[in-house]
């Protein structure tokens, strides 16, 4: 059982790590667009923003319903990143405690 479960836990952990980076890039891209550092009408920027929007927004929307904006600042990406960190910690503890 541990032959399948431990590598599966590691794959899930890596996927969560990639999702963490997608959230960080999405937030930074949003800031750069807001401050007109990058052109949001550029095809690459538009495609990247659309891709990240479709990946990240389904997870951020339920958090935004519960957590209101704080002085105009959206804290939902921070909450999602902390939740991912918590799940990664739990998964790593499970992987460590399985007998090999």
Can you write the helix and strand succession as a string?
HHH
**What percent of residues are in strands?**
under 5%
**Fraction of residues in helix:** over 70%
Mean pLDDT across every amino acid position: 92
Residue stretches low in confidence (pLDDT < 50, at least 5 long) are: none
Computed Rg: 17 Å
What's the count of strands?
A: 0
Tell me, briefly, the overall form. elongated
Number of helices: 3
Tell me the structural class.
mainly alpha
Largest sheet: none
Distance between the termini: 10 Å
Tag the structure with descriptive keywords.
100 residues, mainly alpha, 3 helices, elongated
What do you see in this structure?
The chain has three helices and no strands. The protein is mostly helical and 100 residues long. α1 (2-34) crosses α2 (43-66) and α1 runs antiparallel to α3. The longest helix has 33 residues, at 2-34. The relative contact order is 0.16.
